[in-house]
């Protein structure tokens, strides 16, 4: 089994930055793609960003493109989400997910393993 753990959430003012980290452990020898999703109160879970197993290919939602950057340290099975120019609408619980398919994937249904989530709150 694979365990996924996120960290780095917190409270910031609009325009500020946060860096989230996610580490996958367990049976992670396969070519795992990783992704970030988020869910605000009363809203459905939405895609944020994904990165392929090589770290070469990435994909972002239109709402965060140009502000967020996803990267990974494959040797440490760790993925990062650098969030800049944060807006109040970015407030949500952010979840890290992993899939053995390996390709960049934006559909939540394709992910097998999920972290517990980390809260990001952006004040105006």
List keywords for this structure.
four-stranded antiparallel beta sheet; seven-stranded mixed beta sheet; 124 residues; mainly beta; globular; 0% helix
Please characterize this protein's 3D structure.
- The chain has 124 residues and is mainly β.
- 0% of the residues lie in helices and 51% in strands.
- The strands form two sheets. Strands 2, 4, 5, 6, 9, 10 and 11 form a seven-stranded mixed sheet that branches. Strands 1-3-8-7 form a four-stranded antiparallel sheet, with no helix packed on it.
- A hairpin with a 6-residue loop joins strand 5 and strand 6.
- The N and C termini lie far apart (41 Å).
Brief characterization of the structure:
The chain has 124 residues and is an all-beta fold. It is built from no helices and 11 strands.
Structural class based on helices, strands and sheet pairing? mainly beta
Shape: globular
DSSP summary: helix tally: 0
Radius of gyration: 13 Å
Largest sheet: 7 strands, mixed
Distance between the termini: 41 Å
Strand residue content: over 45%
Helix content: under 10%
Low-confidence stretches: none
Order of helices and strands: EEEEEEEEEEE
What is the number of strand segments?
A: 11
In round numbers, the mean pLDDT is: 93
């Amino acid at each position: 089994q694979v365990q996924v753990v996120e960290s780095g959430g917190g409270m910031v003012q609009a325009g500020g930055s946060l860096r989230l980290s996610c580490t996958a452990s367990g049976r992670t020898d396969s070519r795992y793609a990783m992704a970030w999703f988020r869910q605000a109160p009363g809203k459905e879970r939405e895609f944020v960003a994904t990165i392929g197993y090589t770290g070469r290919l990435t994909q972002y939602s239109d709402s965060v493109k140009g502000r967020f950057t996803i990267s990974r340290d494959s040797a440490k099975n760790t993925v990062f989400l650098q969030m800049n120019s944060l807006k109040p609408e970015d407030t949500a619980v952010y979840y890290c997910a992993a899939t053995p398919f390996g390709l960049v994937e934006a559909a939540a249904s394709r992910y097998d393993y999920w972290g517990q989530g980390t809260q990001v709150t952006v004040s105006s």
